Each structure stands twice: as C-alpha cells, then as structure tokens.
Amino acid sequence: MTAIALPRPAAPRAKSFDLGPVTRAAVGLVGVAFTTACALAAVRFAAGLAPAHPNTQNIAVMVHVAVVLPTVPLGAWLLLATKGTPRHKALGKVWVVLMVLTALTALFIRQINDGGFSPIHLFVPLTLHGAWKTVATARRGDIAAHKRALIGLYLGALILPGLFAFLPGRLMSTWLFG
C-alpha cells in the first residue's frame, strides 16, 4: 500500500506591517515632497544654478549630503512597498547603514563660528538608537515594534532634522531657493 503525500501546511506568516491609510498618506506625501525638494536642490547645485555657499567647501558637509540624499526616497519606498520580500530586506539593510553613516558624518560637521556641536546634533544619538532598535525588533520578529521604530526613524530622525537644512541661509535652502 502506498502512502498518500499530503501537502505541507503553509509556514505561519508574520503579522502584517501594513501602514494604516493615514500613516501611508503621510509617509507618501512627505516622502514625495521631501524627495522632490532634495532632488531639485541637488540638481540646481550640480548644474551650477545655485549660489555659492561656504559649506560646499566643507568635505564633512558634502559627504553627509551625499549619504543622506538617497535615504529620503529609499526610506519612503521601503515604508510603502511590500514588506518581507528579499528586496525589502536587502534594501532595508542598505537604508539602515545609510542612516547610521548619516548620523556619524554629522559628528564631523561643527558650527562654523565656534567649532562646537549645535542643537541639531541631538538627532545623532536618536538616529543611532533608532537604527539599533529597527534591527533589534526585526531580528526578534516583533513586527509591531519594528514598524513603530521605522516610522519614528524615518519621520523623526530623517525628515524632521532634514527640514532644518531648508531653513533660510542653510545649504539646502540656498541650493533650492537661491
């Protein structure tokens, strides 16, 4: 007598990481608006259309800008795209590394007048903690905490301090608005 092979039950799926409609709309709107502003500013600078700014002579500032610019659209895409795929996991790791590099490069940017740290440097330990929390929650499978950590890291450690870069007189503001 031959045994009949029954299909194996599907592996249990992790809880969904889907964003609610309000959060999805907020991330989408902020992601598109901020990505557009950053891209326009960078294009104006690269094309020689932006006025000179003293921070373009500072290598730490330019490395920081080069590392942080891709995190804006990539972070929005990761929050809005399908979760748990190999692509999501690989690009998520790239994004976290870029966020850590963004925080670390900020340590080399000092106020021009006195060479010290400014209040915006408070985001450095917050970003490093958020990056650690993002990885730790994903590794232990706590999807709800992973979701909260990522939304906090994207909006609170990337977009919020990024807005300061667009204040009058700051580099991104000069590049974008002249």
Structure, described:
With 178 residues, the protein is mainly alpha-helical. It has one domain (21-177). 63% of the residues lie in helices and 0% in strands. It contains seven helices and no strands. It has helices at 21-46, 59-68, 71-80, 86-106, 123-139, 143-164, 171-177. Helix 3 (71-80) packs antiparallel against helix 4 (86-106). The chain is elongated and about 80 Å long. The N and C termini lie far apart (83 Å). The model is unreliable at 11-15 (pLDDT under 50).
Q: Give the CA-based shape.
A: elongated
User: Averaged pLDDT, please?
Assistant: 89
Task: Tell me the span between the first and last alpha carbons.
Answer: 83 Å
The fraction of residues in strands falls at: under 5%
Helix proportion: 55-70%
Provide tags for this entry.
mainly alpha, 178 residues, elongated
Summarize the structure.
This protein has 178 residues and is mostly helical.
Topology record:
Layout: H1 21-46, H2 59-68, H3 71-80, H4 86-106, H5 123-139, H6 143-164, H7 171-177
Helix pairs in contact: 1-3, 1-7, 2-4, 3-4, 3-6, 4-5, 5-6
